[in-house]
Amino acid sequence: MKKIQVGFLVSYDYELLKNAIPQIYKESDAIFLAVDKERKTWNGASFQIKEDFFQWIKTFDVDAKIEIYEDNFYCPELTAMQCEVRERKMLAEKMGIGNWLVQLDADEYFLDFKSFVAFLKSKNHLLDNPEKTPVQISPFLINLYKRVEGGFLYVDQATKIMAVTNFPDYKLGRNTKKRIIYQDSLILHECLSRTKEELLMKFSNWGHDVDINVDSFISKWERVNENNYKNMNDFFYLEPHKWKSLEFVKGNSLTEICKNLEHLTMMRPSKFFIWKKNFGQWFKHLFK
Questions:
Q1: Which residue in 132, 74, 144, 65 sits closest to 102, CA to CA?
Q2: Pairwise CA distance, residues 56 & 167, whole Å
Q3: What domain of life does the UniProt record list for this protein's source (predicted)?
């Protein structure tokens, strides 16, 4: 117990795991890949995983940390979000209550997982009786918006992400609605920096499928580029105003982007911001 257990939900964008897994491999005690037995998304669409991906896993997994967890995660009587919550709970049970349960998506790449793990271990007392002291740990996402000439457009403010919990009573996606402990680690999120076809696949088969005006979003996403992004605003796919503006980072590979973003210290939340948010969360849940 009290291990660092990392889980990924594996679907149509499984190739991105070749970026995500190496970022967390060394510091993880175990890694679980949840795959639908019938290769169905939460909306019931079919996808395929090429055999060479599983061969890559075998070759890469030199410490035998990775476990493929197959089950029936698609239920036609449930909404896509209900399927997501159900799968996350099933995966968490597989990972084991009493451990730190880190759940990431295939397009989320930790920039410094080692320091984040050290932070989690400093909170190990919260694993002694997790049902009585439920928390969720939130690092911050750097959201990539679009690949453009010479680099990427990204959202200029980092956003919270409920990536970890000690008690996985998920209510909406990864959110348990319990006390949040914020920590200033950063995750590069290859959220929307895909092809149009890949975006349409994503929007049709994820938990937020009914919450997005796809045509309106795609129209704006196609128009924005490296020359006009400063003249546009409100880019978020759910509530546009939450992503007010974009910035540009140079780089054509994940390594280049991570290196260049690490120099942008403005993206990392300040110590005062973290303290203020954590104090607010502590007070909010003090009498609950």
A1: 65
A2: 32
A3: Bacteria
Q: Residue 213: its pLDDT value, please?
A: 80
- 265 to each of 95, 174, 276, how far by Cα in Å? 34, 27, 19
- Residue identified by tokens 């938990």 is 207
Alpha helix stretches (DSSP H) within the chain: 17-24, 51-60, 80-95, 113-122, 196-205, 214-223, 254-262, 271-284
Nearest-angstrom CA–CA distance, 106 and 189? 9
pLDDT greater than 70 at residue 264: no
Q: What residues does 249 pair with on adjacent strands?
A: 152
In three-state secondary structure terms, 189 is strand
Q: Please report, rounded to a whole number, the percentage of residues in the chain having pLDDT higher than 90.
A: 77
Q: Which of 10, 13, 7, 62 is nearest to 31 (CA)?
A: 7
- Which phi and psi (to 5°) does residue 97 adopt? -65, 140
- Model pLDDT, residue 119: 98
Dump pLDDT digits (tens) for 135-151: 999 999 999 999 999 99
Q: Residue count of the chain, please give it.
A: 288
Q: What are 190-211's pLDDT values in tens digits?
A: 988 888 988 888 887 765 556 6
In angstroms, rounded to a whole number, what is the distance separating the alpha carbons of residues 157 and 267? 6
pLDDT at 79 over 80: yes
Strands 66-71 and 30-36: parallel
The pLDDT assigned to 95 comes to 98
Per-residue pLDDT at 158 exceeds 80 = yes
Structure token pair of residue 45: 């669409």
User: How far apart, in whole angstroms, are the C-alpha atoms of residue 185 and residue 117?
Assistant: 10
Asked if 234 and 224 count as a contact pair (C-beta separation under 8 A), the reply is no
What residues contact residue 138 under an 8 Å CB cut-off, 6+ apart? 160, 161, 162, 163, 164, 180, 181, 182, 183
Statement: residue 103 has pLDDT above 80: yes
